[in-house]
Design brief:
Elements (H helix, E strand, L loop, with lengths): L1 H11 L4 H7 L2 H9 L28 E5 L5 E5 L6 E2 L1 H9 L3 H11 L14 E4 L9 H4 L5 H6 L2 E10 L5 E5 L6 E7 L2 E5 L8 E4 L7 E2 L8 E7 L2 H9 L3 E5 L8 H10 E7 L4 H14 L2 E4 L11 H6 L10 E3 L13 H14 L9 E5 L2 E5 L3 E6 L5 H13 L11 E3 L5 E7 L7 H12 L11 E5 L8 H14 L6 E7 L11 H17 L2 E8 L11 H10 L2 E7 L10 E9 L8 E6 L4 E4 L18 H11 L4 E2 H12 L3 H13 L4 E2 L5 E9 L2 E8 L9
Parallel strand pairs: 11-12, 11-13, 13-14, 18-23, 18-24, 20-21, 20-22, 22-23
Antiparallel strand pairs: 1-2, 2-3, 4-5, 5-6, 5-7, 7-8, 8-9, 10-12, 14-15, 16-17, 16-19, 24-25, 25-26, 26-27, 28-31, 29-30, 30-31
Length: about 700
């Protein structure tokens, strides 16, 4: 019994993540390691500070801590999707240390008294006998041959066996679709590489050297150029092409100064060549500036083509003056430590390359009268005063994007591009969750051709109504990030913010407004995302400006603007007619305006009929003429039919308002019109009433004019 207690106590003193979490508080830990970067005392959720990983302070702070769904506190920069992690990630990035070293920092700083496990058995490796066509197939696509792998002491692994705390083994077997390789670092140390694993690509077996540099022992004594790359595979790819290269444990690792000094003496040029993602660019600049090294950048590869030199070679490219841009070490006359100079130079190089080829027009997601109105990776605004059906217009655009191929509903004349797969994300901030917002979602689905029981995979939605206003921006970012993880490959995300001014703490605050605008800009420039922002106009009759500083900013950033307004904005009582204007189109000609009305029967916005409009000068579409309705009635009316059902079906068929249909039926039943029934007998439309119920029937005409000679 005594020995069992001793064993439990020893295991509980193991230095690992779980024990640190159990012995400390994640909020306290984050505050402790962030206290040097702000002067706000205890950092709380909703209070933004400058990103501690950046060399210069942010003009608009966007770094914050928040409590995650697991109950643990994390950090996030809401202007940078890649900046999100826990306290262990924070220490690893701030101090450029490994995960185990981060654990040790917390252990010592908080005097936890934890130590390494003495009971856990070390993992075991079973190697394959030799390289062959099958186990070398992964490397072949990068031009790396078995001879290259053997030269760098890289071996194919058959199985890795790990041991649990109770010493029970569990095995990881290599397969053709999930191969395992081992980089031999020392006699008893291997870095295990699983390139196709979704979670754990790297692990260490044995004691990792304090200053790990892969490829250092394979270098010649002297040479013209040496590349410092982001990983072992990059070293092998460069070596296979005849170039000297090394790498450290990761792109965030900083080497010892003596090593860099030695390499600069042995090679004419030492060039940092890291990945083309955000982390790679930042760390490349940091390393090059610290040690006065050359720095190389590759052309931006597409998302499917990868981000590093290995992927560059895999795509059939070669290193040349045309494909690689080498930036010399910073000179004293240049401004040292400029955070954005290199980034702006890279943008310039990208633009130089772009303007030498044909620039295609931005594809349209939605068109109106064959003119684009919703575009890829752009910002759109729907503005108007209260009661002008801004939200219903937003719903209509969503229905257009979700519309089934066999759906014949006419949605204000808008049409979507069938070639661009779309995912709609509708985020509401105003309507109640008991009836209003659920009803709106039902209408979107019905207008798109779905039943209310269906759940389209490309339709996401939520409401910020119950989120405190101070935390809505954080909640918004979290939900959008989550939706993006569920997108199908190549799907374009369209985010509707209804209304956008409720997504921030204060829409008159410059800081709050720019924080949201920066988030939107980041998404549309770096991802396949489009925004449609619904916003109220100032209530003053004379003004047509969206509300607040946020309204001004988002209107300036918008590619296209929709505006809804009453037909006579100056009259005290709103009219049933709604004018749809298109005040702004950066991509071309503005479409002509249209007149809409809200149909009480179908609960849908429809194009108004010319004859009903209060202003004949307005541009409108004529719908449901008498000839079309008479043709419909000839096959529809068999016996006595309900007036209510008839009006609803006519509204649905001809995309007209119920008032328009009632006018047509009144005209047909009150005057002489011959309507052929199903047997081609000339009839007249007869209206009867039983209490409040109205009915219609076709009654044969005794001496129809059409039969008289």
């Amino acid at each position: 019994m005594t020995s069992q207690k001793i064993k439990i106590m020893e295991i509980n003193k193991i230095l690992n993540k779980e024990n640190i979490i159990n012995l400390t508080d994640s909020h306290t830990l984050l505050n402790y390691y962030l206290q040097a970067f702000h002067n706000h005392g205890i950092l709380k959720q909703g209070k933004h500070i400058s990103n501690p990983f950046l060399s210069q302070k942010q003009k608009t702070p966007s770094f914050n801590i928040y409590k995650s769904s697991s109950g643990l506190w994390r950090y996030k920069d809401f202007a940078d999707d890649n900046c999100d992690g826990d306290v262990f990630d924070l220490i690893m990035k701030l101090k450029s240390v490994s995960f185990m070293e981060a654990l040790q920092h917390i252990n010592l700083d908080f005097n936890l008294g934890l130590g390494a496990s003495v009971h856990k058995k070390q993992p075991e490796i079973q190697f394959q006998s030799a390289w062959n066509q099958e186990n070398a197939s992964y490397w072949k696509s990068y031009g790396i041959l078995p001879d290259h792998l053997e030269h760098f002491r890289v071996f194919p692994i058959l199985k890795v066996t790990h041991f649990k705390e109770n010493k029970d083994p569990f095995h990881i077997h290599a397969t053709l679709h999930n191969p395992i390789f081992g980089y031999q670092i020392t006699k008893d140390c291997y870095k295990v590489y699983r390139p196709l694993s979704q979670r754990y690509k790297f692990s260490w077996i044995g004691s990792k050297p304090e200053h790990y540099t892969f490829g250092i022992s394979q270098l010649p004594e002297t040479g013209k150029r040496l590349f410092i790359t982001g990983g072992e595979k990059d070293v092998l790819s460069l070596f296979a092409k005849g170039y000297n290269a090394i790498c450290f444990n990761s792109e965030t690792s900083l080497p010892h100064a003596d090593l860099i000094l030695e390499l600069k003496e042995r090679f004419n040029k030492v060039i940092v060549l890291y990945d083309m993602d955000k982390t790679g660019k930042e760390q490349s600049q940091k390393l090059a500036e610290k040690f006065q090294l050359y720095r190389a950048t590759l052309p931006q590869l597409s998302a499917n083509d990868g981000k590093d030199i290995s992927d560059f070679f895999k795509g059939g490219n070669i290193l040349s003056n045309e494909t690689i841009h080498i930036i010399p070490p910073s000179q004293k006359k240049k401004k040292m430590g400029s955070k954005y100079l290199v980034q702006l130079q890279e943008v310039q190089e990208l633009l130089k390359e772009t303007i030498t080829s044909e620039i295609k027009e931005i594809p349209s997601l939605i068109t109106y009268n064959k003119e684009g109105v919703v575009f890829l990776q752009s910002v759109h605004v729907i503005q108007g005063k209260s009661g002008t059906h801004k939200s219903r217009l937003a719903q209509t655009l969503c229905s257009v994007l979700l519309k089934k191929e066999d759906c014949n509903n006419e949605l204000l004349g808008f049409e979507r591009s069938p070639d661009i797969p779309s995912h709609v994300c509708y985020i509401d901030t105003e309507r109640n969750l008991a009836y209003q917002f659920p009803k709106a979602l039902q209408e979107i689905q019905l207008d798109a051709g779905y039943s209310i029981m269906e759940k389209p995979n490309n339709f996401s939605y939520t409401s910020l109504v119950n989120i405190p206003r101070a935390e809505r921006f954080i909640a918004l970012c979290e939900f959008i990030d989550n939706v993006q993880t569920e997108l199908e490959k190549g799907e374009h995300l369209i985010i509707v913010l209804d209304v956008v001014s409720d997504c921030v703490m204060d829409f008159n605050s410059t800081q709050d407004s720019l924080l949201l605008i920066d988030m939107i800009n980041t998404h549309i420039n770096q991802k396949l995302v489009t925004f449609i922002a619904v916003i109220h106009e100032n209530p003053s009759v004379a003004e047509r400006k969206p509300r607040g500083h946020l309204g001004t900013e988002i209107q300036n950033k918008a590619t296209f603007t929709f505006r809804t307004a009453f037909e006579n904005e100056k009259q005290p009582e709103p009219s049933d007619m709604i004018l749809l204007h298109f005040p702004k189109n950066r991509n071309g000609k503005r479409p002509l305006p249209a007149t809409m009305e809200f149909c009480e029967t179908t609960k849908r916005l429809i194009l108004a009929d010319t004859g009903i409009s209060l202003k004949p000068s307005a541009i409108q579409n004529k719908k449901g003429n008498l000839g079309e309705i008479m043709e419909f009635l000839s096959s529809y009316v068999t016996g006595i039919v309900s007036g209510k059902q008839l009006i609803m079906d006519l509204c649905q068929t001809f995309s007209c308002g119920d008032r328009t249909i009632r006018e047509r039926l009144k005209e047909l039943s009150g005057s002489y019109f011959e309507i052929l029934d199903a047997n081609e007998v000339p009839c007249q439309l007869i209206k009867t009433q039983n209490g409040r119920e109205v009915f219609y029937r076709l009654q044969p005409i005794e001496n129809p004019i059409s039969k008289l000679k």
